[in-house]
Write a structure and sequence with these properties.
Blueprint: H1 5-12, E1 15-20, H2 22-27, H3 29-34, E2 40-43, H4 49-52, H5 62-73, E3 77-84, H6 100-117, E4 124-129, H7 142-147, H8 151-162, E5 167-172, H9 180-194, E6 201-204, E7 207-208, H10 215-227, E8 231-239, H11 250-268, E9 272-275, H12 285-288, H13 307-316
Parallel strand pairs: 1-2, 1-9, 2-3, 3-4, 4-5, 5-6, 6-8, 7-8, 8-9
Helix pairs in contact: 1-13, 6-8, 10-11, 11-13
The protein binds (3S,4R)-3-hydroxy-2-oxopiperidin-4-yl beta-D-xylopyranoside (XIL).
Length: about 325
């Protein structure tokens, strides 16, 4: 039998992962089989605050546990996503109905509850997701309003305290290559390290949508974060094209791009690549932006290997 991506990754001591959802894991045996290709899992939605907290005094861990149990059973590296974010907040959490002090208590309690529950089980946490605004500065969020900028440091401290063995990441998009946003994140994380904040890594989401950044610049970016002593992971990769102008050989171009990114990032010291979905029909992108092609991942709608799959396997090899 041909080797899986996982076989190759395991042999080289690197990780290849996918974002995983609870529903297909429960119902689709092909989905479970396809997960045999990966040695790492990120919880796609199940650990976000909204899905986890149906009401203010209630947690529903069922979806998260389905994913966590599967990952443990299959000896997969498990990335928890995400403790502090401005999106997918619970519907009951209408920030203007809460005082700053209440919001502070809520967030502290949330991080401690969730990170604490999975202490010793979840290997890595995206503690804070997308805190930097696209036009510079910190993004306006309920958490920034309630705490000022210190919410980021505090979140890492709470997580470290309740889950001392987990590696703790700052995760963001649009910061894959060297650019203004990644410069700003570089400054932010350098400052945190100087202050002694317990941060271990940076997650580069890497949604390559209409524009595909230069992998050479991505590698340079990986290297500078790595030189800070941070673990650098590609956390949410997908590669799409503008549907109206997509090249006829886009599957081959997509493969080449995936392959080059993985190869250059490995050389630059990144050892973990997570794609944002198992097969094309699970991708979030058609819901996010309908002008994109709908085939951004490594496996097609029938769970068959795409050229991108072969390219990633070759790159890992
Ligand atoms: C996406 C999920 O894939 C979708 O199912 C959900 O509807 C919206 O969120 N950056 C992130 C991820 O950090 O959490 C997002 O995931 C994609 C962009």
């Amino acid at each position: 039998m041909a080797e899986t991506l996982r076989d190759v990754a395991d042999r080289h001591g690197v990780r290849i992962g996918a974002a995983v959802a609870a529903d297909p894991l429960r119902t689709d045996y092909q989905y479970r089989d396809a997960l045999g290709e990966f040695n790492a899992v990120t919880t796609e939605n199940a650990l976000k605050m909204g899905p986890l907290c149906p009401s203010e005094h209630e947690y529903d861990f069922r979806d998260a546990d389905v994913i966590v149990d599967f990952a443990r059973e299959h000896d997969m590296y498990l990335r928890g996503h995400t403790l502090v974010w401005h999106n997918q907040l619970p519907e009951w959490l209408l920030p203007w109905q809460y005082t700053d002090a209440e919001l502070r208590r809520l967030l502290r309690q949330h991080v401690r509850t969730v990170a604490g529950r999975y202490a010793g089980t979840i290997d890595a946490w995206d503690v804070v997701n997308e805190a930097v605004a696209d036009d510079g500065g910190l993004r306006e969020t309920p958490w920034l309003r309630a705490f000022g900028e210190e919410y980021i440091d505090r979140a890492f401290e709470w997580a470290r305290k309740v889950a001392p063995e987990a590696t703790l990441f700052y995760n963001d998009y649009g910061a894959d290559a060297i650019n203004d946003k990644s410069d700003e994140i570089y400054e932010l994380l350098s400052g945190m390290l100087e202050r002694g904040v317990p941060i271990d890594g940076v997650g580069l989401q890497y949604h390559a949508l209409h524009d595909h950044v230069d992998p050479v610049s991505v590698a340079e970016n990986v290297r500078r974060f790595s030189d800070l002593g941070l673990d650098v992971q590609i956390t949410e990769m997908d590669v799409a094209y503008t549907a109206a102008t997509a090249p006829p050989d886009r599957r081959e171009q997509q493969a080449e791009y995936y392959g080059e990114v993985v190869e250059r990032c490995l050389e630059a010291g990144c050892d973990t690549f997570v794609v944002w979905g198992v097969a094309d029909h699970h991708s979030w992108l058609p819901h996010f932006d309908e002008t994109l092609t709908e085939d951004p991942l490594l496996l097609d709608d029938g769970y068959d290997h795409k050229p991108a799959y072969d390219a990633v396997r070759d790159a890992l090899e």
